[in-house]
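Bit of a strange request maybe. I'm writing a small parser for structure token strings and I need a real example to test against, not something I typed by hand. Could someone generate the tokens for this chain?
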Amino acid sequence: MAVVGIIPAAGGGERLEADVPKAFVACGGKPLVEWSIDALAAACDRVVVAVPEGWDGDVPGPAEAVAGGAARSESVRNALAAAPEAKIAVVHDAARPLVTPDLVEHCVAVVEEGWDGAVAAARMTDTVKEAGAELRVLATLERSRLWRAQTPQAFSAELLRRALDVDAETLAAATDDASLVEAAGGSVRVVEAPLENIKVTRRLDLELAEALLRARAGAR
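Reply from user aminoacidic:
Good idea to test on real output. This should exercise your parser:
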């Protein structure tokens, strides 16, 4: 069963104040995206990276590059179209450098068991408020049922293709691919993941990711 890793990496680096696309910002001595490529390559048969249109820089091996889209899920759709052999697709953010092959394999195993999708997620530990107009608190949500969605997210590739076959507005509004699969009627299960599988969005996140990577290397 062909398992293809997909990394949407077409986003900019504005919030990181970077002069290159975010996925290619240096983190712990190599581009952010390379950490994700390494982890996916250890658990997948092939890795496809969706890069910014016109990007002429290198994509670290053994990954292959395709042109990304205007929205994240459009980039995923482009990458998946380049891998027609995929039976299971693993989508992972280029900006999550602390992913491990074990977490990828766990998500893939859930799909192999018969689920349509598996989402890496961490338990919510903060108290969560719902607020409305004028920031008035409307409700305190029951956090025992709430999870912080991460990536990797693994799916039946056939169902993911159908879920991504929607208009550009729907693709742009999707915050992750699991929500599209859920909307298409797919059954998606949570896979508990460590809190340190953080997403690098701002400079502080980058500094934290580098510290965590150094600590991981030191533990080895």
